[in-house]
Structures are given as structure tokens and as C-alpha cells.
């Protein structure tokens, strides 16, 4: 597989990052965040995708999205949501040009081993960036809905989240406890390195299974240790 080819897999969750052009601010007001979430809801439904987690940071977004039976649904969703946000900001600011970097980054996730970990990684972004002391203090992520602080009917709950407990209240408490657990450096580096380089987020066995399924080598090996720069 070409080195710059984006990996899109049917029926697998994908960790997505899209940054503002030159890392400029994308969201400047509550209205900017709300518009993005409205469009995310609309287009995830139109494209048949599921959104398991999100975090809207000032100059980039993190998403966990399952494209369903056609991986290209994910590309369509990202194009439509990004395009609408660009047109809105350009109109408000009386400007022209792109709002986003040319390409979003995507990393398919090994569901059993890393889906919950990737959701935690996404929803902890504001804490790692020292914007808030705890994830529940940040308004623009999916965490508050998962622990029962807010209702967000369009957010999808993956099976691993649902399997945490038999009732909603117990699941919310278990999910909160999961966030309080220790996160290993290995887990952090694997998730960060996979999304930065567009690789698969998973074990070597998962990588080999996907390579066998698609009939191509898709893991870019020999690139050194994961980058430790900002998320």
C-alpha cells in the first residue's frame, strides 16, 4: 500500500484527527462548536456511520467513527462536515480559503483491545492539554454524555461500553472509574503513534489479520518510536 494511502476499513471504528490549517483556531465561540456537532449528527446519520467518541479542541478535532459497511462513508462524512464548517467561518469572518489541513489522519482500531482505550485517549485531550483538571469539566467532548451528566441522543454507544454493566447508571459509574485508572506509557505511545502515522491501532496479530483480509501490507514499519509532540 502506498505510504500516504489512507486506510479505511468497513465495520471497524477509526480514530480521526483533523487539524486547523497551520494549526490555527477552528472554534472561537460556542456557536462554532455547536454547529460542528449539529453537522456531525446530520452527516453521521446520512452516511450510516456511528460516532462513539469525540473531542473538539480549539484548533483540532478528535473523533472515533465506525463507517459501517462502506469505509468510504467516513470520507464522505468528514468532507461534508469540514466543508460546512469552512463556509460558516469564512462567512462570519468575511474571509476565504481553507480552514483545515489538507488531509485528516485516520487509524482503524482493534475493537476488542483498544476501542475503550482510544475513547479515553480522545476524551482526556483537554486534561492532557491542561485546559481542565478533569474530563467532566470540558463541555465539548462525549465524556459527559457517557457518565450521565448530559443527554446526547445521537451519540452511539459501542458494545464494549454497553458491556461494562447491565444498567445505564452502573455503566456510567464503571466508565468514570475506568478514566481514573492508570494509563500505561505503552498504551499512550501506541495510540499516539498509530494516529500520527496513519497506522492501525492494535496488536501485531490484529495488523496481520487486517493485512490478510485486504491482501496488502498496510503497516508502515521501521519508522522509529512514536512522536511525543502534542496530541
Which terms summarize this structure?
231 residues; alpha+beta; Alpha-Beta Plaits; four-stranded antiparallel β-sheet; 9 helices
What are the low-pLDDT stretches, counting only 5+ consecutive residues below 50? Answer: 221-231
Overall pLDDT: 90
| Physical arrangement of strands within the biggest beta sheet | 2-3-1-4
Largest sheet: 4 strands, antiparallel
Question: Per DSSP, what share of the residues sits in E-state strands of 2 or more residues?
Answer: 5-15%
Query: How far apart are the first and last residues' alpha carbons, in Å?
Result: 26 Å
Q: Could you give the order of the helices and strands?
A: EHEEHEHHHHHHH
Looking at the structure, the CATH topology is Alpha-Beta Plaits
Q: In the CATH hierarchy, what is the class? A: Alpha Beta
Count the E strands. Answer: 4
Any chance you could write out the topology, listing elements then pairs?
Blueprint (H helix, E strand, L loop, with lengths): L13 E6 L10 H17 L3 E7 L3 E7 L5 H22 L11 E4 L2 H13 L1 H4 L14 H4 L12 H4 L5 H13 L4 H13 L6 H11 L17
Antiparallel strand pairs: 1-3, 1-4, 2-3
Amino acid at each position: 500500500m502506498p505510504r500516504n494511502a489512507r486506510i479505511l476499513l468497513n465495520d471497524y471504528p477509526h480514530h480521526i484527527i483533523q487539524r486547523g490549517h497551520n494549526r490555527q483556531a477552528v472554534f472561537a465561540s460556542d456557536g462554532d462548536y455547536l454547529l460542528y456537532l449539529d453537522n456531525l449528527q446530520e452527516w453521521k446519520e446520512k452516511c450510516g456511520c456511528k460516532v462513539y467518541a469525540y473531542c473538539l479542541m480549539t484548533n483540532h478535532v478528535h473523533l472515533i467513527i465506525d463507517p459501517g459497511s462502506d469505509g468510504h462513508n467516513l470520507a464522505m462524512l468528514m468532507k461534508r462536515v469540514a466543508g460546512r464548517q469552512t463556509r460558516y467561518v469564512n462567512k462570519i469572518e468575511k474571509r476565504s480559503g481553507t480552514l483545515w489541513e489538507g488531509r485528516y489522519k485516520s487509524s482503524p482500531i482493534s475493537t476488542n483491545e483498544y476501542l475503550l482505550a482510544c475513547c479515553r485517549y480522545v476524551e482526556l485531550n483537554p486534561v492532557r492539554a491542561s485546559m481542565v483538571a478533569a474530563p467532566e469539566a470540558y463541555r465539548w467532548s462525549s465524556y459527559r454524555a457517557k457518565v450521565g451528566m448530559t443527554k446526547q441522543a445521537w451519540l452511539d454507544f459501542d458494545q464494549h461500553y454497553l458491556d461494562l454493566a447491565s444498567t445505564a447508571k452502573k455503566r456510567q459509574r464503571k466508565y468514570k472509574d475506568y478514566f481514573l485508572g492508570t494509563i500505561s506509557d505503552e498504551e499512550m505511545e501506541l495510540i499516539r503513534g498509530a494516529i500520527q502515522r496513519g497506522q492501525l491501532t492494535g496488536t501485531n496479530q490484529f495488523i496481520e489479520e487486517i493485512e490478510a483480509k485486504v491482501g496488502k501490507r498496510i503497516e508502515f514499519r521501521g519508522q522509529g518510536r512514536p512522536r511525543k509532540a502534542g496530541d
